[in-house]
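Lab notebook, bench 4. Still working through the backlog of constructs that have no structural model yet. Next entry is a single chain of 230 residues. Request: give me the structure tokens for it.
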Amino acid sequence: METMETKSVSTVSEEGGQRAEAIVEAAGRLFFAPGFARVSMDDLARELGMSKKSIYRHFPDRRGLLTAVLDRQFTAVERTLAAAAEDAEGEPFDVRVQRFLIAAGTELGRIGAAQLATGRGGDAMLRQYVEQRVDAVIYQRIDELFRDGHRRGLLLAPPELLGEITRGALERLFLSRLPHELEWTAADLLRATVDTVLYGAIRPTRARSDGERLATATSAARDDEEEVSP
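Model written out:
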């Protein structure tokens, strides 16, 4: 008797988990489509062919459901970035950074994280949640990559500066109209952005050593400080 009861409870639990997963999957399709802010729980119920009551049995409100959707998305992002880092293992440092940044930027664009974090979701708590997850899943890993390059003497600029530049570039890129105005694909623009972060945008008139470039940058920074000093 105990075995039959245990099996019955297990079956109910499994069916409930499958239904919750189906709800999250359908919500992801709707919520990450253009105009998702206007998607209601009624729309989701119609998409699933079930009542709102059934949805609320698993998720108490729209915010809770969207959080579950985002959790699923960020789990997939973590897998993608881990695979990108593994594939680039043993490659030169700039290749490792390039591949990771392209993978990170691609994932940000796919889930619309930049738009969500800047207000597309219309929910302050949700925006904070997205910002925290993006920081933990993507930017902290980028920062660690730059710190590793700094420890190995491979960077001319402070890793903190490169981290801030990279964050701003990636987030701004996905809110920009540049892909349309330049008639580039988002992927092309992302690669150009990554190359600019890694190698700079100005071609030198003559070859200079790393030491000369660093000395020039340091001197310019000191000059700027002296100009603004009282």
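Notes after review: Residues 179 and 185 are 6 Å apart (CA to CA). The chain has eleven helices and no strands. Flag for follow-up if needed.
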